[in-house]
Amino acid sequence: MTVTESSPPAGAAPDLLLPEPPTAAGDGAFSTRGWLVLITLCCATFMCGLDFSIVTVALPDIGSSLGFSSPGTLQWVATASLLPSASLLPLFARVADLVGRKKLFTFGVALFTLFSLGAALAGNPGVLIATRVGQGTAAAMIAPAAIALMTGYFPEGPQRARALGLNGAVMSLGFVLGALGGGVITSGFSWRWTMVVLCVMGALALAGALALPKMRESSAAKRMDVPGAVLATLGLFGLVYGISTGGDKGWVRLDSLGSVVAGAVLLGAFLLVERRHPEPLIPLTVLNRPTVKWSGLFGVITFGMCAGTTVLLSLYMQNVLGFTPLQAGLSYLGEGAAAMLGGMYVARLLGRFGGARVLAAGLLIQGIGTVAMFLLPETVNLPVLIVTSSVMGLGHVFSVVSFITVMTTGVVEEDQGVVGGLSQLPQYVAAIGVAGLSAIAAARTTSLAGGSAPDAAATLGGLHAGMVTAGAVALAGAALAATVLRKRTAA
Known about the structure:
With about 500 residues, the chain is mainly α. The protein has 19 helices and two strands. It has helices spanning about 30-65, 70-75, 75-85, 90-100, 100-120, 125-155, 160-190, 190-210, 225-250, 255-275, 285, 290-320, 325-330, 335-355, 355-370, 380-410, 415-430, 430-450, 455-490, and strands at about 15, 215. Strands 1-2 form a two-stranded parallel ribbon. The longest helix is centred in the first third of the chain and has 35 residues, at about 30-65.
């Protein structure tokens, strides 16, 4: 019998959040309750996407206001949130299965809101960095729980594809509007209002979370894998810390290279521990699923190359073209519009062509748009800038939505939380792309400058090298997805 919204199955509590009933037309339309779920989860996703970019734009104002001692110390305002977000994701993905995904989601949103308020009121660097750590920890709770709630509520097919499409578009839009909003707010008001914006977004998401009925969830997980949680957290922390600081401090420094090596060793030990634990943090049967492994790799490619290129674009607009932060933020509107357009139509493409093909096409489009940035000139040419960044953004949204769709398809209920966490991990290890592409651009710029201070031409040559590299990696990912992933998903 088909379960409808007005007739829960016998024995079910009346306040359980049952899966969204499929529509007769199969067009992915949502009920009123479905829209409430989607808006609440997308609001939290938008808030987390907004967090990183809005703070990055406000860093100079924060440094002068609170008296940070050096640019390296100031960078910790961004890094302090990134590190716990990345390293704690696997832990909270399993906690979501133990305590309930809706409970963890609601608690994470409440914490994020409180720490955002604390950041807005911070009077010195130490307090601000501490609250940023709190925001990152809360984001690690929100991300896996939100995806698990979304994939658990919306059934596989048009509804889930449409929900993930809108969620991916909102995620990208949060980053773009963060860059724009950060410039507007810090120019007209104060950096503290960037934290107030996050606090307001958190309050809205919290109101939506509290309005949701209880979620029907699996109770398969009974206890926490403490050794696995410790090894995974420390391993990811070391890996992300080493990568995110290596580009600034140098890759041969002990704290950068040593952190990467130590992180890799700890993650290797984590895999060994998971083989023997009766209830592993991440079951190896999940990690060994071809769709999970390959989709995770393509997620790292699309996030890493897009994030790294976005940083290079910011440097191009401000260091070569002489744009103000506000002008640079406005220049991202084309990318944001393309992301929204892609998010609206990607569900139809997934339904017609399948996740593997759309993923390959998304990486191909992203790669073409990024490689074409080699045409960016030393003088202002808005059509070229807007077209190339928009094509990159469109392909990126296709890639994000399709890799999450492929990764979460066919996953049993008790593993939805774990896979939800894994699907969100690539966006937090995108520091790989940012650090790698920045290092390539810097090396090429130094080579072109010939030992003297780099001029605009040398800087542009270095940025072109980084952009072309990012495009080539995305194109290689497209070719790999078209061959390997299609065979795996067919099998």
